[in-house]
Structures are given as C-alpha cells and as structure tokens.
Amino acid sequence: MTRHSDSANESYRLNVNGSDREVTDAWVGESLLYVLRERLGLPGAKGACEQGECGSCTVIMDDRAVCSCLVLAASATESRILTVESLGDDGRLSDVQQAFLDAGGVQCGFCTPGFIVAVHHLLDRKPQPDDEEIKEALSGNICRCTGYGRILEAVKVVARGRTHGGAA
Fold first, then answer.
1. Which pTM was predicted?
2. Containing domain of residue 144, as a range?
C-alpha cells in the first residue's frame, strides 16, 4: 500500500470482534481490509482481488456480510465488525470451520476465511437454507480449488447439526 505523505493522518477507534481497537497514524483512505490485517494484526481476511469480486476478505459489519477491501476503515467507526478470528471459542474451531475440514472444503485455504464468515452469516439468518439460498449467499465468494461441492456439503452438515441440537 502506498503511503500518502501529503494527506493528514488520523486516529480513530473501531469495534472489532467485540473490543474497541485504536487505529493511530492512519491515512483516512485505508481500506478496512488493510487496517484489520496490517494495523490490528488480524490476518484472517485475505486480500486477493481488492475489488470486491472474490469474497476472500469477507467480514460481518453491522450484521451484513461485506467485502472489507471496499470499506474505508475510517468510515466504520460507528460499526460492529466481526472477523473470522471471532468465530471459534476458546481456541476451538467453530462448527462451520470443523465442517469445512471434515468435508474437504479446504484446499489451499486462501478463500476459506471469507467462505467461513459468509456461511456463519447465512446460518445465523437462515438456519435451514435450501440449495438455492446457500448458493446465493455464497455467490460473492470464489474458490479456485474445491469445485464448490465440498463447501456446499459442509454448509448442509452444519445446518443439520444445528437443527438436531448439536455440533456438525
């Protein structure tokens, strides 16, 4: 990322994963993706296309799945942001993360955090999605390795597990 020395740098606070985090000496044009990864040390969201086309940088912002590469971090000061790092509990994988591993929905792993966040967002809103709802919810995420079948199966496994009162 190019530094813009002719622009004034700012400090602001973001609410990330339930904690207020200070961002200091930041150029106001920095993306949320850049700030999460480089300033706050949360490398889960990945920067691939930097154009909002691939979904590898998906985070939840105010209960909406968004591509963090398209959000100016300084504009998110009144928002609640959740990243993939917030999804596990006490160092354990979430049911979605475990299902991705079990179903073979993880290949190279680059797109995985974005998919995981998108699936959590889907299942929090729609616990029993049908195939079309799953495909629509994940349509903003691109995987070049898995062929999607294993990812779709992981979503179904979690949905069934949650319906029957247990983990996937």
1. 0.89
2. 95-163
The answer as to whether 153 is a domain residue is yes
How far apart, in whole angstroms, are the C-alpha atoms of residue 44 and residue 85?
A: 6
Please tell me the total count of domains within the chain. 2
99 and 59, same structural domain? no
- 3-state SS track over the chain: CCCCCCCCEEEEEEEECCEEEEEEEEECCCEHHHHHHHHCCCCCCCCCCCCCCCCCCEEEECCEEEEHHHCEHHHHCCCEEECHHHCCECCECCHHHHHHHHHCCCCCCCCHHHHHHHHHHHHHHCCCCCHHHHHHHCCCCCCCCCCCHHHHHHHHHHHHHHHCCCCC
Are residues 80 and 16 part of one domain?
Answer: yes
Count Cβ atoms below 10 Å from residue 59 Cβ, excluding itself: 32
Q: pLDDT digit string (tens) for 15-67? A: 999 999 999 999 999 999 999 999 999 999 999 999 999 999 999 999 999 99
